[in-house]
Amino acid sequence: xxxxxxxxxxxxxxxxxxxxxxxxxxxxxxxxxxxxxxxxxxxxxxxxxxxxxxxxxxxxxxxxxxxxxxxxxxxxxxxxxxxxxxxxxxxxxxxxxxxxxxxxxxxxxxxxxxxxxxxxxxxxxxxxxxxxxxxxxxxxxxxxxxxxxxxxxxxxxxxxxxxxxxxxxxxxxxxxxxxxxxxxxxxxxxxxxxxxxxxxxxxxxxxxxxxxxxxxxxxxxxxxxxxxxxxxxxxxxxxxxxxxxxxxxxxxxxxxxxxxxxxxxxxxxxxxxxxxxxxxxxxxxxxxxxxxxxxxxxxxxxxxxxxxxxxxxxxxxxxxxxxxxxxxxxxxxxxxxxxxxxxxxxxxxxxxxxxxxxxxxxxxxxxxxxxxxxxxxxxxxxxx
Length: 384
Fold this sequence. Notes:
Layout: E1 2-6, H1 12-20, E2 28-33, E3 45-46, H2 55-68, H3 73-84, E4 93-96, H4 106-118, E5 122-127, H5 132-140, H6 149-153, H7 162-165, H8 170-182, E6 185-188, E7 203-206, E8 228-234, H9 244-257, E9 262-268, H10 272-279, E10 284-286, H11 296-303, E11 307-310, H12 314-320, E12 329-330, H13 335-347, H14 349-366, H15 369-382
Helix pairs in contact: 1-15, 4-8, 9-13, 11-14
C-alpha cells in the first residue's frame, strides 16, 4: 500500500508515518504539510509559506491581517499545493488531518482536493483539532469541556478564536461537505472528537494518538536532588483555549510557597526539537486544561515518566478502564485545585515516581506508533 498523509497537527501524522514504515503491507508513506507552523515537524512535501514568513512578507502579512482579518499566507500555500499535487498520484490511501487540511483559500482548497481525489484511490478524514462537526457540536453542548469554554464564559475573548470561527464560514463548510461526501470513513484521534462524530454513518471509531515510544528515554530528575522542576509550554496561538492562565496563576502561588524547592521552566513558541529538550529535565509538566484527553506533548511527557497535568475526563477514564489520577492528573480550570495538586506532587517524590511509571506503561501499551499503525491499516483495508 502507498499512503499519502495530508497535513499534520501536533505531530500526529509524523508519528503515524514512523509506525507505518514498520508495517509489512506499506510500501511508501508521503507526508505533505507545513510542519505545523513554528513547531517545524519534518515533512516530505512542504507547503510552508516562504515569502509570507520572510521579513517583508511578515510585515505585509501582519498589516493585512490587522485590517482584513485574513492571512495572505493562504495564497502561497495554495500555490505550493498546486505545484506539489501534480506528482501525488496512484496512492491507495489519502488521509486528511482535518476538514481544512491545506488551510488555503476555500475555493482553491476544494479545487486542489478534487484533483487529489481524482488521481488517487480511497480517502479518509481524521477528526483532529477543531473542525466543522466539532464546532457545531460544542456550540450545541456548552456543558462539555472543550477549548470553547473560555469564549462561552466570556464573549469578549472572540478575537482569540479567529481560527475557530473559520469553521463557521460558508466556504469552509462547503469544503467539509465535499470531503465528507468523498471520504470512506471518519476517524476520531482522541476523546475530544468522539461525540461530534459518533452518530455520523461514516464514523468508524477512535484510533488513539500514535507516539514514537522507541525514541523516548525516561528523563526524570535524579532522585538525589531536592529541587522539583515544573515545566510549562506556551503557544500564544492557543493560550486562551488551553487554559494556560490557570497554570500561571497556580505557579505564582507555588513559587511563593516553595521558592527554594522548585525550578519553573517556561518554554514559549519553541520549535518542537527545542521544546522537547527543554521539557526533558522536568518532574512535572503542565499541558492543558480544556480537553478530555491528551495530545502529543502530554503523551510524550508521560512516556518519559513525568507527572503530567492534562485532559483526563471521565470519558477518557471509561474508554481505557482507568481510575482518576492513575496515569496523569486531570487539569481543571480551578486555581485552588491546581495549587493543591502541585503541592501534593512536589511533596511526594515516591508517588511522583510511581505515577510516572504507570504513565510510561500506559503510553507504551495504548499509543505505540507501530500498534496504532496496525489499527489504521486495518480500518483502511476494511473500506475497500
